[in-house]
């Protein structure tokens, strides 16, 4: 390869770690031969040896994967702001826009409902246009949501017309959120290797609940309701240039799985019910059972956490806890979980790399028992006990987010499709949990009035039944084993070349 060509490639790629073995024929087919027609050289730890070998084995990591990961985290946080934004200022919104509290609540509900169909459309968009175009679509929707919402703050508009614009703005925000959330595992697979995939998935997965917490914190602190909506619009617009930091795919994949496109979502859905599908989408009966278990457990735990975040005050205030203490309990669940996920995700990448199913069998029962104990822990003068329960739930639940997403990728070999199904289920179950628990609220005549004791019983019963299925999971990590086998083949070729 000429000095000029090599220098250009170096500027473009900036590889952190390189391993390449290519045959002359394969190199000519994909147009990556050097100027004199020689095959691309094998590189191990930045050293170069020119070889001719079959089959083509090309793996490389790029430093810019971290830039794209950071950008995707920021976009995920901001896309999550809109859903809880109006909760803390609901009374002021109702007064300023002359609408009811139920109408204010629907500004959040519309996000959850639109999320459901959008989550299933995301894999189709990625398959046709790629990651970058999908992220650009999310950015466009963020901008539209920002300024359509702000247009609804015009003083000349009546309550009905202003509310219609607010709803349309929230609809566009609801399209953006699943784009950045669903594609986390796919981005990890395309850009990261075996020692970084789970950590990258964790960082993207927890950024969404962080965004929800930030939204609840900021919205009441930035002035009037109209000023609050303007601030949300400015934030949503300001982050959209981050999409230019996210690459569609690296020039050379980091792993064997990263080199393969995900099968279509319809192939995954057909494989789940045992219909005939292409070989790359095929799932054995055992894998279909495992994926069904993952769907049920993941959806239940996400729904329980989301419902609790919305109903925290309604659960604790009737038994004597202040709004501040209720908020601290909700924050305890989130913050301890985030810290635990940050600590454990690298361990799953490097130490417990083949123990995802075993981890699930340990953590999921702990979560289920903790939700069950909340029935009796929710009583007056039991702050210490409640904080302990919240800590256990947070640590185990949020740690399971990346584990569940990665385990689903392992049994389906379809990163974006499996993620779409899991997040769809979590949001669908979440709507059900909120509606059912609201219906189970006690009356004004109960002791204490408006208590949520029956709601907690429903919550714990559902979780216990759903999570008991985790003991049936096998969770064979097929994708990881295929990646490791391809890496072994590459190392064998490398060693034989060096010896010769």
From TrEMBL:
Annotated protein name in UniProt: MFS general substrate transporter
Signal peptide: none
GO CC aspect terms: membrane
Region: Disordered, residue numbers: 1-38
GO molecular function, one term: transmembrane transporter activity
SUPFAM superfamilies: MFS general substrate transporter (SSF103473)
Membrane-protein topology: Multi-pass membrane protein
Main location: membrane
Composition-biased stretches (Basic and acidic residues): 1-10, 23-33
Segments passing through the bilayer: 66-86, 106-127, 162-180, 200-222, 228-246, 291-313, 325-348, 384-408, 420-440, 452-473
Locations listed in the record: Membrane
Species name: Leucocoprinus birnbaumii
Keywords linked to the UniProt accession: Membrane, Transmembrane, Transmembrane helix
């Amino acid at each position: 390869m000429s000095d000029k060509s090599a220098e250009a490639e170096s500027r473009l790629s900036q590889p952190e770690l390189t391993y390449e073995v290519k045959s002359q024929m394969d190199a000519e087919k994909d147009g990556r031969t050097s100027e004199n027609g020689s095959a691309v050289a094998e590189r191990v730890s930045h050293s170069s040896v020119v070889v001719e070998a079959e089959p083509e084995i090309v793996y490389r990591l790029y430093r810019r994967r971290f830039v794209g990961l950071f950008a995707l985290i920021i976009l995920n946080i901001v896309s999550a702001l809109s859903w809880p934004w109006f909760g803390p200022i609901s009374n002021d919104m109702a007064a300023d826009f002359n609408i009811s509290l139920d109408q204010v609540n629907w500004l959040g509900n519309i996000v959850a409902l639109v999320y459901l169909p959008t989550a299933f459309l995301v894999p189709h968009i990625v398959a046709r246009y790629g990651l970058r175009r999908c992220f650009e679509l999310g950015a466009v929707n963020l901008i539209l949501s920002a300024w359509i919402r702000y247009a609804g703050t015009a003083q000349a508009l009546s309550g009905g017309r202003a509310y219609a614009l607010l709803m349309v703005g929230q609809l566009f925000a609801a399209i953006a959120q699943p784009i950045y959330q669903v594609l986390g595992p796919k981005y990890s697979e395309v850009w990261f290797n075996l020692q970084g995939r789970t950590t990258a998935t964790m960082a993207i997965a927890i950024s969404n609940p962080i965004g929800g917490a930030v939204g609840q914190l900021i919205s009441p602190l930035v002035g009037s309701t109209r000023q609050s909506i303007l601030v949300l619009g400015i934030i949503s617009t300001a982050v959209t240039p981050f999409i230019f930091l996210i690459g569609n795919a690296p020039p050379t994949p980091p792993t064997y799985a990263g080199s393969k496109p995900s099968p279509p979502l319809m192939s995954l859905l057909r494989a789940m019910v045992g219909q005939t599908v292409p070989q790359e989408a095929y799932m054995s009966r055992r894998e279909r059972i495992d994926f069904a278990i993952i769907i049920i457990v993941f959806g239940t735990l996400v729904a329980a956490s989301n419902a609790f975040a919305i109903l925290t005050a309604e659960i604790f205030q009737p038994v004597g806890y202040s709004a501040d203490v209720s908020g601290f309990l909700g924050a305890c669940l989130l913050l301890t979980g985030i810290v635990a996920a940050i600590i454990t995700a690298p361990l799953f990448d490097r130490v417990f790399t083949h123990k995802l199913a075993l981890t699930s069998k340990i953590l999921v029962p702990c979560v289920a028992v903790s939700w069950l104990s909340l029935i009796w822990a929710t009583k007056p003068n039991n702050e210490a006990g409640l904080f302990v329960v919240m800590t256990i739930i947070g640590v185990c639940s949020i740690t399971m987010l990346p584990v569940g997403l990665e385990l689903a990728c392992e049994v389906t070999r379809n990163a974006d499709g499996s993620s779409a199904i899991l997040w769809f289920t979590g949001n669908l179950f979440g709507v059900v949990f909120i509606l059912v628990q609201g219906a189970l609220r006690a009356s004004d005549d109960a002791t204490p009035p408006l208590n949520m004791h029956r709601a907690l019983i429903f919550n714990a019963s559902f979780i216990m039944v759903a999570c008991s299925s985790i003991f049936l999971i096998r969770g064979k990590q097929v994708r990881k084993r295929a990646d490791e086998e391809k890496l072994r083949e590459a190392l064998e070729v490398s060693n034989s070349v060096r010896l010769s």
